[in-house]
Write a structure and sequence with these properties.
two-stranded parallel ribbon, eight-stranded mixed beta sheet, alpha/beta, 6 helices
Length: 203
């Protein structure tokens, strides 16, 4: 499958690129600093900004799927995820890309009941702008004509733990390693179990 990954130079995005390549997907890494990534035969590096709709559209053309791992720029930022995803969704729909997988946060929408009190406190205070951006981002994704899946991630961890990923819209969340999340994102490319719905993941 030909897949383009947005936010490919971020911590989760880099893992997603690796998982996609390991899964024999022909992969395009899109980002402003793609020179951080090592060139490989099945990997195309495309430098660009998700705020540039024309550049995004050109990059999306010819792909079968898109994975969105965008990150916020600061605690004050409440538009990057929404604006960037809007441009990606428009491009995906314009070019008839069949599969769209987007990272969001556990706690958004009905998953609020799944997160611990500590996460609720953070989303109401320090991370309130990020939370609002994810909420708006999900609304944009739901308007897509593509076969989309929103993956609501538990608190992300950089500490590797060999624990299985649990996907549920009822179970309580804890943490999830970025590599485990990335693996789940790539697995969705060939799995329609969560087609046109949001699913919460944790380890």
């Amino acid at each position: 499958m030909r897949v383009i990954i947005f936010g490919a130079t971020g911590k989760t995005g880099q893992h997603a690129v690796r998982c996609a390549l390991d899964g024999s997907h022909t992969t395009t890494a899109f980002g402003r600093s793609v020179d951080r990534l090592s060139a490989e035969s099945a990997l195309t590096l495309t430098r660009g900004d998700v705020f540039d709709a024309e550049v995004v559209s050109d990059a999306v053309a010819g792909h079968d799927a898109a994975i969105v791992c965008l990150g916020s720029t600061s605690l004050k930022d409440r538009t990057t995820l929404t604006r960037g995803t809007e441009h990606i969704v428009n491009a995906v729909d314009r070019h008839g890309v069949g599969r769209l997988v987007v990272v969001s946060a556990a706690g958004v929408g009905e998953s609020w009941a799944q997160i611990p009190w500590s996460s609720k406190l953070m989303f109401k205070t320090m991370l309130r702008n990020l939370f609002a951006d994810h909420q708006a981002q999900e609304e944009v994704v739901r308007e897509s004509a593509a076969n989309w899946t929103v993956v609501r991630s538990a608190v992300l961890s950089d500490k590797h733990e060999p624990r299985a990923v649990s996907a549920s819209n009822t179970d309580k969340t804890s943490r999830i390693h970025r590599a485990a999340l990335a693996g789940f994102l790539v697995d969705q490319l060939g799995d329609s179990a969560y087609s046109r719905q949001a699913i919460t993941v944790t380890s």
